Request: fold
Amino acid sequence: MGEQEGATSIGFEAQAGRRRRALKLLALGLLIPVTACSQGEKNMHKFTVLDVEMFSYIDRVVTDIIFNGTDLGVMNKYGGTSTIAGVRIPFGVQSLHWTLDGPAGTPRNGEVVNMKNTLVITPDQIPTGTQSLGLHLYPDDTVEVTFAEFVPERTARGRKIMEARK
Reply:
C-alpha cells in the first residue's frame, strides 16, 4: 500500500503542475487584451478632431481652401484664417487644395492648386494635449503641418519668407 500511496502522490504533483501551467497560460491570455487597450485611444480611432488655423506665405489672395473635404475659407496675401473649430482629420494621407485669386490679368488667377507634397498624419505625430493644427501654405505650392496645444505659430520657413518681404 505504501507503493500505491507514493504513486498517487506523484500523480497529484503532476496534476498540480499541469494545473499551474494552465493557470499561467490563462493569466497570460487575459493580459494580452489589457496590453492592447493600454496602447491608448489614439490607435483605436481612424481620425482626430482638432481646431485648424491656416497660414499663407503666398503673395496672393487664396480662396476655396478645402482640407479633406472641409471648407476652411479664404486668406489675404500673407494672411491667415481664423481658427476653424472641430475639424475632423483622418489619419493617413491628407487632401488640400485652394484657388488662386487676385487682380484681373494676374497669372494663374482662378487656378485650383493641389499641394505638391504629400502630407501624412498619424496618431504618433500628435503630441499629448494637442488641440490645434497649423496648415502652412508656401509659394512653391507645398504645405507643412504643425501641432499646438493652443494656437499654432508660424514656422521657421514661414518667418524667413515674411522677413524677406520687408
Remarks:
- Confidence is low (pLDDT under 50) at residues 34-39.
- Strands lie at 47-56, 61-67, 70-75, 84-90, 92-93, 96-101, 112-114, 120-121, 132-137, 143-148.
- The chain has two domains: 2-38, 42-164.
